[in-house]
Amino acid sequence: MNELLENPVFEPMRPKRHLHLVQTSFGDREIYDSIAHCNRCGRCMQVCPSYRLTGLETHSPRGRNQIARFILEGKFKITEPSVCQSLASCTLCGRCTQHCAGKIPTAEHVLEMQRSVGKKRLPVLLQFLFELRPQHPVLFKSLVRLALFFRPAQIWKIMYFLPGFSWLKQIDQLLPAKIFSLDKMLKQEKKLPDNDSFQVIYIPSLEAEFLQPDIAVSSLRLLQKQNRCSIWTNTPCGLFEYVYGDLRQSRRVLRRLIQRYNHVCTSPVPLVTDSLDVYHFLKKAPQLFAGKNRLAAQAEQFAQQVHFITEFFPAHLTPLKSNLLPVQLDYGALFSRESQPMMAVSEQIKTLLQQNFVQCVYTDFDTPSFGYSFTKGNQNESIQFELVKTIARNRAKTILVFSGLNALELNKTLRKFYPAARAVHVVHIADETL
Amino acid sequence: MPIPQTVLHKLETLVGKENLLTDEASLLLHAYDCSLSRTRPDAVVVIPNASVIPSVVTLLAAHKIPFVPRAAATNHAGSCAALKGGVILNLTRLNHILQIDTQHGFAWVEPGVITAQLQEALAPLGFFYAPDPASERICTIGGNAAQNASGARCMKYGGTLDHLLAAEVVLPSGKTIFLSRREGGPDLLGLLCGSEGTLGIITKLQVKILPQVEHIQTFLATFPSLQDCVQTVTDLVSLGITPRCVEAMDKLTAQAIEGFVQAGYPTEAESLLILELDGDLSQIKQDSQTLEKLCQRRGSLSFVTATTEERRHKLWVGRKAAYAAMARLAPNVMVGDGTVPRSELPTALQKVRKILDENKVYAGLLFHAGDGNFHPHLIFDERNKPETKRLNTALKQILQVCVDCGGTISGEHGIGVEKRAVMAYQYDKPTLDLFTKIKQATDPAGIANPLKIIPVNYGEKTRAPLSLSPSIEKLAEQLRLFIQAKTPYAVIGKNLQLKTTAPYTLSTCTLDKIIDIDLKNYTVTAEAGLPLDILQSALTARGVYNTLPTTRDTLGGAFSSGQFPHFYSQVLGIEALLPDGSYVRYGGKFTKNAAGYNLIRLFAGAQGKFGLVTKLTFKIFATPQPIPDAQPFQPLTLNSWGQALQQALDKHHLLVTEER
Hints:
- The complex is a heterodimer.
- Chain A folds into three domains: 3-117, Orthogonal Bundle (Fumarate Reductase Iron-sulfur Protein, Chain B, domain 2); 124-311, no CATH class; 313-431, 3-Layer(aba) Sandwich (Rossmann fold).
- Helix content of chain A is 50%, strand content 7%.
- Chain A contains 23 helices and ten strands.
- A four-stranded parallel sheet of chain A has the order 4-3-5-6, with helices on both faces. Chain A has a four-stranded parallel sheet with strand order 8-7-9-10.
- In chain A, α22 (404-417) links the parallel β9 (398-401) and β10.
- Chain A is globular and about 60 Å long.
- By secondary structure, chain B is an alpha+beta fold.
- Chain B has five domains: 5-90, Uridine Diphospho-n-acetylenolpyruvylglucosamine Reductase, domain 2; 97-211, Uridine Diphospho-n-acetylenolpyruvylglucosamine Reductase, domain 3, CATH 3.30.465; 215-323, Alpha-Beta Plaits (2-Layer Sandwich), CATH 3.30.70; 330-404, Alpha-Beta Plaits (2-Layer Sandwich), CATH 3.30.70.2740; 470-656, Uridine Diphospho-n-acetylenolpyruvylglucosamine Reductase, domain 3 (2-Layer Sandwich), CATH 3.30.465.
- In chain B, the strands form six sheets. In chain B, strands 12, 13, 14, 15, 16, 17, 18 and 19 form an eight-stranded antiparallel sheet that branches. Chain B has a five-stranded antiparallel sheet with strand order 5-6-10-8-9.
- In chain B, β24 and β25 (583-587) form a beta hairpin.
- In chain B, α16 crosses α21 (640-649).
- The longest helix of chain B is centred in the middle third of the chain and has 20 residues, at 385-404.
């Protein structure tokens, strides 16, 4: 056992299931140290969506940090129902960290506690499907294609009622009526990706590859304007395992990706993703391998090459058509709301649109990320409803989001409550496909 | 003491099952606030709407179960800790703005409304709510009222106390009363403000709102010493210029902020002043020129005007990042709070720095230079027990410095449990006894946020009592005779308004001296029997002004008659002879005081029903001020709370203000 990987806190007997260190804006910290930085000042409270909805201390970031602390100090057990509820209510949005004076990564603390609970939070079959992807990517792809093929034939609706398949209804409602195949769309493009000689690698997110291929196509177009681009399809990165599964598995998948990158790229090549969730996760690569000297160094170099698609936006964007205005930016993303690309593109769009850019205020809600609707359906809907209320108040017509999954989630709610607005991935603003 | 099951069932019926929390996690998560105090309650009731509060409190009172009302629990004094267990009443869901009336300048809000939420609602209407605690994005207006919070704008606009107009209050017995400034009489709303939930629960508040100012200009100046920095502010005030905000910090804090947010603060100067003027453009221009000259005269190292909104914003980003700048350096930050008369600020800060060095505590010093209120931001790791002990020692020594400099142990954070013991540094036994009586009269069962504010078993550890002047001693002697003989008596001044014909009176007529006109702090201390015309002559001779009319009435009469309610907020200190013969003092030459119950407001407009006011310290101004018309004199009728207070203070019912 590597001593450096030992985690003396939540599960001393199973150290590999936990992080050795957490990254913060003020440097790496051990988990207990990171939790102890919570001064209970409450700055995180009013920005936390779950707290704002419930007014309960147990559903607040301050409360979650105190729970973590009480557990580590032996005051109560991690398996208590109220603790589990508190952890499950966290959307991992990182708004608390953004407003925290000590930049405490509460989302990381929540995940660390979740790993100790060890329960599968997604529906079993969905969890199985996602776990299948890193092991058998081809099989995964075939299963997804098969499911999408049969979707128009209304077969899904029959399956809604089968035990363990109720989540299909949720997915069915999320998805657009017609889904094109990325492979076919790429073939229609005049400039196909160049997998031999390239200056940039593009990894489409799961949703961009299988559910919203227009995001992948737009991203490729944007990248190919300036660079020769390679596309790595059906490439898991370990994010799903990091959030919903086993940290060891997440490390394995990410290690494989880093090794592939190192094998293919002899010199540093930008690695681009269209999902800010994935971007934030890949930037955390050194955190996953902290304590493993060789891997940590590789992860550090790898993370430096990770970019979000907006970093390739041209300096001057084309103004939007008037029927799409005003525009609101949805800051929903996993872990952070102040990463560099998010801030940069926010400023760029603000400059472009001037008074047609709706500036969100401190307490405005945004889209819970990364499948939150599957883990906490009711709460997700309430959060989305609050967001839609803001959109309607602002009379925004276009909502720019930072991941395809957010676009799907938000559009579902918009269709129900405010069809005048539409959520689109931010890449489309540069691709002029709006 | 565990809460009986029957009570829990009744609570469940009143508030709903989902709003009664008794699981371990919920209890432990309601054990703290932003202080170091942690005490686990026995149950948490999330109040779903204000209408259930009277029934809940009545039930708890019937079973003598302690309760602690709280909302966001962001205070620094441990006011939210349930020291005797019992029930936490969580008011966060009472977060509705009920009414905004721009025509009459008020808003009705529920106590759980976040202060910034009200600001955001008012901004589009062209109005603002003046109190601006640094935590306004997270704290609630109910919490502000409970702690009498204030902020950077306090110097010009006053704190929460000055912006409360009315409130609906549930007393610890469960009875609902309505308090309003418009009704005259003792300012019980003022007494309630800052009482930290120990006297009742505010369920609805009416607050004053103001039209937004047209222009704001922000300045940054640096000085070679703290003395020069503070003196510049005094110079400015002496010219009749009251800035919108005056914030200052020492070198160490400026360096920490620059290391964090790069706000453009010079880091070489010993002190840094951020000053803001508001009003119309020509006035700002004129005042800014004066300000620049004053800064130069005091040897300022730099003077920068924020010419763009971006620059102005950046200056404030720096100031507001002070907490975060310190928070990144260590796991915990303790924000101290003390106030001294402005003239004493440089001395106090020097002593504070010495204490911090001696105790090996690292801290940045921030202060509201305009009102002598300073906030050392002390960093530490609470897991390190010796370090935490050193920090607590340093904090106590700092508070002793505040008292020694004629100040108070809390300017805006309150006392709670953290500063409870230190109250004995500031107050003598009779004053603490009076606090106890107020608490007992309002909450005989001692269930409303128990064990807060008043030190436990303070006995002889208190500050030495005042030695009385011969004239006050004579009055005290006379009072003792009345008590001994059980003779009813009336408190009067010149008896111009009350016109009592009671055979025995206790008159302030012999108390007619001006004790002190302080042109550094712009305060006057005078005896209550001083005629206003004599006061005005003395002030005019010194080139200063106040807001009282030039009449034959006495100063005490102006304060107690209820005819000049605007004057209450200008009174900073008070001394009074109580019906039991004891002599109390409260406040001083400092503008902010969040330590103990506000005795100024208890006696204000009370027409002598709680005792005889002997001395007052109040603000004066460098320029002539508008003098509001006197309101017609109306004999006072006390409400039920007022009557309970009177009974507690005057057990033998000897004090009369009307003929018997």
